[in-house]
């Protein structure tokens, strides 16, 4: 919740925020058949909920995201992961919307998952946490609505895996959202996407410190494997073009050395190794395995005889679909498939392909056209809420 | 050398072949400053060298290639890696050419490299083998010419890293080749290419069985890391389209399972894991590190003030450049850069972009247009040789 802002924080930030832990004491039936009698969600909320409880926006995070989407945690120099897009006067305008961002179950930032206690054993779930589907996240977020007094979402918004959740929301609870914003996403992963995820999982599982997921019992964690997994992901999130611009073929420590065991590195190598190491200290390997599997299994239309048009006929909300020209992990062609199915299903849809050289990462980064597109769409959503009697 | 063919071997195969080990007793000065007083190359040769010694074609292998390019080793059911393109009546026609394919130094199939003895220590070189550049392979191949009695190459031919060697040949020994065939290659790797190679290297080095490259002393090898490295490479050699066609999103062992620890896999996962495991039993990790570094460092024009046109002005041979439409590891755009530099340098060049959905792997696989393009070009090369007085 916003606190008094130190002078150094930017005026268009929600400022100092703290997360809250929401205990949900109602059962959550997972797609795999397991029922969680209760679960907890670590959540951040920005802005004020109106009396009708209908000016809320749900932010759906992606693979490695979490509840800290905007503002600053006390003492931190870096803000939340979507600070560019959430705040007063920003596209997701906290002066108009009540913005809700939970860490979803299965992840590792306070919500129920591999790191929290399995009530049946009194031990952390670790590798025994049940497999998850995107609809499990949606159903958990549905319960969260009631805890927060949200009556309907003015919009459900997400990028990448977050976009998959947003689409799933539009099918599972069509009456509970006005708008669905699907950014840099897809109705299902390609075989290549799955292949990269599988290599990442194998990197984790083949780390001798993995111990079949029971690494905590051995007071260790598969840091090497997780770092590799992140490096693989990271390369696929950047465009070849951007990597060329950012790193080129610059050498870090001089030129080709004489003799063996040269320490020379290209800048890109140094950067990637740093990214891998940083991530492996901050994320949980069992969560990474769970959530990449969720990504692989996501298939919007599977339950509709693989007919995406039939699926989207269930939806009632408006849609904005956004893609980025240099994104090869979730290419614009995947977004156009979504748009085509929405149009064929008679849905109201607005599509923007944003020029960007930032690859898949573009959905997290500043980009004027993207800000305008998202801001314009959500401003209309705000007007619709505010025009209600 | 061809032997009597069993009835079961195809008539257009060079048949049963055996490799020979060629001892080169002249010094080889490597780019890093180390001098190898002598070295050995494991070589296969197909066809007959003419009296002038000028009907020879040098086959340059890529990252994981070796001397066994065509025909069958006795008892093997699978032929050499370029069987589709080398043989009687094939594009690299063994009835007209004397075809030479060495395993290059630093690799792990009999030629001098990490697995062979370092004369200074009496022990295998292992991680102490000096770093290599593509020009070191070219200089070794130059010495091999003399051992085999080859006076000039009718063509130097290679795909991927093999194409880099072929281009280097055209600059280092311009008077010693008539034609240079550069397939699915590039004048230098992109930052993204380097990034994938670095992740592969890190997978190997972070395997606890790597022991700083001295794994043989510990009677082990970093199989897990090498398998991961191969899986990463493999995904980048295939096109997204082909993976979709070949594997789609088919599940291997049933559908999404109930409860935890699901054994369910997509077909692509099973395939990739198999490829990784197969490779890690057949290749040496130190060789993989050496040769990926060679790939990363290759930069055709670095010694020519980064001016590729100036570089190619040194060349005297004709060029054929071939790329494949779905190859994203060595994209057609990289081949067009080669062609543009060759044209600007006034060289004779023929360029073919072949339609293929096979990705980078296309250069190894059957493709009628590719066979025609290569065959037509090399038939002219043969005619030129045969027309000499």
Automatic annotation (TrEMBL), chains A, B:
Localization (cell): Cytoplasm
Domain of life the protein comes from: Bacteria
Pfam families reported for this sequence: Abhydrolase_1
Entry's Gene Ontology BP terms: homoserine metabolic process; methionine biosynthetic process
Marked site (Important for acyl-CoA specificity) residue numbers: 329
MF (Gene Ontology): homoserine O-acetyltransferase activity; homoserine O-succinyltransferase activity
Keyword DNA-binding applies: no
Catalytic activity from the UniProt record: L-homoserine + succinyl-CoA = O-succinyl-L-homoserine + CoA
Pathway: Amino-acid biosynthesis; L-methionine biosynthesis via de novo pathway; O-succinyl-L-homoserine from L-homoserine: step 1/1
Domain AB hydrolase-1: from-to ranges: 55-240
EC annotation from Swiss-Prot or TrEMBL: 2.3.1.46
Active site, UniProt feature: 160, 327, 360
Entry keywords, A to Z: Acyltransferase, Amino-acid biosynthesis, Cytoplasm, Methionine biosynthesis, Transferase
Positions with a binding annotation for substrate: 230, 361
Subunit structure: Homodimer.
Physiological role: Transfers a succinyl group from succinyl-CoA to L-homoserine, forming succinyl-L-homoserine.
PANTHER family: HOMOSERINE O-ACETYLTRANSFERASE
Full protein name: Homoserine O-succinyltransferase
Designated gene of the protein: metXS
């Amino acid at each position: 919740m916003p606190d008094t802002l130190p002078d150094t924080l930017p005026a268009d930030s929600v400022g100092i925020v703290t997360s809250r832990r929401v205990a949900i004491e109602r059962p959550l039936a997972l797609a795999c058949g397991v029922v969680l009698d209760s679960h907890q969600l670590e959540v951040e909320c920005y802005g004020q909920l109106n009396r009708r409880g209908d000016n809320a926006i749900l932010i759906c995070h992606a693979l490695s995201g979490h509840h800290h989407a905007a503002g600053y945690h006390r003492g931190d120099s870096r803000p939340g992961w979507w600070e560019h897009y959430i705040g007063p006067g920003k596209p997701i305008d906290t002066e108009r919307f009540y913005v809700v961002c939970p860490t979803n179950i299965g992840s590792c930032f306070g919500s129920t998952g591999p790191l929290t206690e399995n009530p049946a054993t009194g031990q952390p779930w670790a590798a025994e946490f049940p497999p998850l589907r995107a609809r499990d996240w949606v159903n958990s977020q549905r319960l969260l609505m009631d805890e927060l007094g949200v009556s309907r979402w003015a919009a459900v918004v997400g990028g990448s895996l977050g976009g998959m959740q947003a689409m799933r929301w539009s099918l599972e609870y069509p009456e509970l959202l006005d708008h669905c914003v699907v950014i840099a996403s897809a109705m299902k992963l390609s075989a290549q996407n799955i292949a990269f995820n599988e290599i990442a999982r194998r990197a984790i599982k083949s780390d001798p410190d993995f111990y079949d997921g029971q690494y905590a019992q051995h007071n260790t964690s598969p840091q090497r494997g997780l770092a590799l997994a992140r490096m693989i992901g990271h390369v696929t999130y950047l465009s070849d073009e951007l990597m060329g611009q950012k790193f080129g073929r610059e050498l870090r420590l001089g030129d080709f050395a004489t003799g063996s065991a040269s320490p020379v590195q290209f800048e890109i190598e140094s950067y990637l190794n740093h990214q891998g190491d940083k991530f492996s200290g901050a994320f949980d390997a069992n969560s990474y395995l769970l959530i990449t599997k969720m990504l692989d299994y996501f298939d919007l239309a599977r339950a509709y005889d693989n007919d995406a048009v039939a699926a989207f006929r269930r939806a009632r909300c408006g849609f904005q679909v956004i893609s980025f020209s240099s994104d090869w992990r979730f290419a614009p062609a995947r977004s156009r498939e979504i748009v085509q199915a929405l149009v064929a299903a008679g849905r109201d849809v607005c599509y923007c392909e944003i020029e960007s050289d930032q690859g898949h990462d573009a959905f997290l980064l500043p980009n004027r056209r993207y800000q305008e597109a998202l801001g314009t769409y959500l401003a209309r959503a705000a007007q619709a809420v505010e025009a209600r009697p």
